[in-house]
Each structure stands twice: as structure tokens, then as C-alpha cells.
Automatic annotation (TrEMBL):
<protein>
    <recommendedName>
        <fullName>Twin transmembrane helix small protein</fullName>
    </recommendedName>
</protein>
<keyword id="KW-0472">Membrane</keyword>
<feature type="transmembrane region" description="Helical">
    <location>
        <begin position="38"/>
        <end position="59"/>
    </location>
</feature>
<keyword id="KW-1133">Transmembrane helix</keyword>
<dbReference type="InterPro" id="IPR021313">
    <property type="entry name" value="DUF2909"/>
</dbReference>
<dbReference type="Pfam" id="PF11137">
    <property type="entry name" value="DUF2909"/>
</dbReference>
<feature type="transmembrane region" description="Helical">
    <location>
        <begin position="6"/>
        <end position="26"/>
    </location>
</feature>
<keyword id="KW-0812">Transmembrane</keyword>
Length: 65
């Protein structure tokens, strides 16, 4: 229970930091940043997908946190 809570908190921290850097890229674009924007978007989407998978697996095994 505590271990899963720590995992969720770490995942949330990763998602928040990725979102913050992505938001910073959008708000302060430098020339030639389109590749970085695409990469940041891909990383953000994969992090959200990982979080959803963890939540789904926790729900399937009957551990509700």
C-alpha cells in the first residue's frame, strides 16, 4: 500500500515536471524548437499513458488507493 503510494507520487512528479517543461517550450519558443516540441509532446503522452496503465493495473488487482 505504502509502496504503491510512493510509486504514484513519483509518477505524478514525473508527469508534472514533463508538463512544466513542455509548457515552458510552448510559452518561450526559440528558433528551431519544433523537434523539441514534438519530442516533449511524445514524452508527455507516454508518461500519461504509463500513469493510466499503472492505475488500471492497480484497479484490476483490486488494490484501490
Amino acid at each position: 500500500m505504502i509502496f504503491k503510494f510512493i510509486i504514484v507520487v513519483m509518477l505524478l512528479a514525473v508527469v508534472i515536471s514533463l508538463f512544466w517543461s513542455f509548457w515552458h517550450l510552448i510559452r518561450h519558443p526559440q528558433p528551431g524548437n519544433k523537434v523539441l516540441k514534438g519530442l516533449a509532446l511524445r514524452v508527455l503522452l507516454s508518461a500519461i499513458t504509463l500513469l493510466l496503465i499503472f492505475l488500471y493495473l492497480g484497479y484490476q488487482t483490486g488494490h484501490h488507493w
